[in-house]
Amino acid sequence: MANNLLKGKRGIIFGALDENSIAWKTALKAHEEGASFILTNAPIALRMGKINELAKACNTEVIPADATSEEDLLNLFTRSVEVLGGKLDFVLHSIGMSPNVRKDKSYGDLNYDWFLKTLDISGVSFHKVMQAAEKTDAMNEWGSIVALSYIAAQRSFPDYSDMAQAKAVLESIARSYGYRFAKTKKVRVNTISQSPTKTTAGSGISGFDVFYDYAQMMSFLGNASAEYCAKYIVVMFSVFTHMYTIHYLFNDIAYSTIILSNNF
Ligand code: NAI
Questions:
Q1: Average model confidence (pLDDT) for the chain?
Q2: CA distance 65 to 133
Q3: Cα distance between residue 86 and residue 138, in whole Å
Q4: How far apart are CA 130 and CA 107, in angstroms?
Q5: Ligand 1 proximity of 224 Cβ (cutoff 6 Å)
Q6: What is the residue extent of each domain of the chain?
């Protein structure tokens, strides 16, 4: 059931790769709630072509941008404001990739060039996105910027490898840029730590099935789905959450709290 929560709102959604992606579900939900937005992904991911199906369903277009390229991002924000016909009210950063995880490198044998790549793509890109938004003056007052994180940013989770460091960087950037954007533009910046979710990025982590099942067992309502994450993100984009900024929010049915209470 739609409630027009985002009626008249404009935005950019990063990271819809296929129908399992959290960004994909968010795009469908945001469209249902009345938003207009641009979809974007790295040029290499666009070659799959799937995102065009989503663009059609959401009556929008795709503007390619590698989230590590400042030039791509400046172009993305400038063109999005032009295409959508006004400044933006929301941005979703739903981006993650680690070459070390992809190539199954053990944590004691990391390739450091790849490590820096992981940090750039999955962490520093959040800064680049917000810097491009600021430099192009693309955000409306009370706009909302959300990035997706994982509990491994804050707790020991060996299988998450260098992605744990990338998520720690991401959450730290949310604190610093959130402060800056709140003061200059009243723009809100938050991260949402999501339950393990069966997507391309999620399933690429070694032992994913084991920690998916473990989290499923420990979270008393089961793992939170990508659909529920999308709903949460839409609420974070809406006027109901104007007073939220620089929060690490959780969409994991208190799994992270249960870990603590069990001294895991
Ligand atoms: P996904 O694989 O569907 O999405 C990851 C996206 O990042 C893809 O669309 C990919 O093309 C994009 N990407 C990679 N490199 C990029 C670059 N250089 N520039 C622009 N985009 C790039 O997987 P999912 O799970 O939907 O991931 C979304 C976010 O959720 C990520 O930040 C991930 O770390 C986070 N997350 C996922 C969890 C899971 O278990 N799936 C749990 C907690 C957080």
A1: 94
A2: 13
A3: 8
A4: 30
A5: no
A6: 10-261
Q: Which of 13, 19, 20, 22 to mutate to test the pocket of ligand 1 (most atoms within 8 A of CB)?
A: 22
Asked if 241 and 214 count as a contact pair (C-beta separation under 8 A), the reply is no
Q: Residue written as tokens 């399992």?
A: 20
Mean pLDDT confidence for 42-57: 94
Which two structure tokens, joined as six digits, stand for 108? 């004691």
Q: Three-class SS of residue 58?
A: coil
Contact yes or no for 58/32 (Cβ under 8 A): no
Distance CA 8, CA 25 (A): 19
Over the stretch 81-114, which tens digit does the pLDDT of each residue have? 999 999 999 999 999 999 999 999 999 999 999 9
Binding site membership of 166 for ligand 1 (Cβ less than 6 Å):
no
Q: Average pLDDT for residues 145-152, to the nearest whole number?
A: 97
Domain 10-261 in CATH: superfamily? NAD(P)-binding Rossmann-like Domain (3.40.50.720)
| Phi, psi torsion values for 89, nearest 5 degrees | -110, -15
- Residue percentage of the chain with pLDDT more than 70: 98
Q: Return the number of other C-beta atoms located less than 10 Å from residue 224's C-beta.
A: 23
202 lines ligand 1 (CB under 6 A): yes
pLDDT at 263: 46
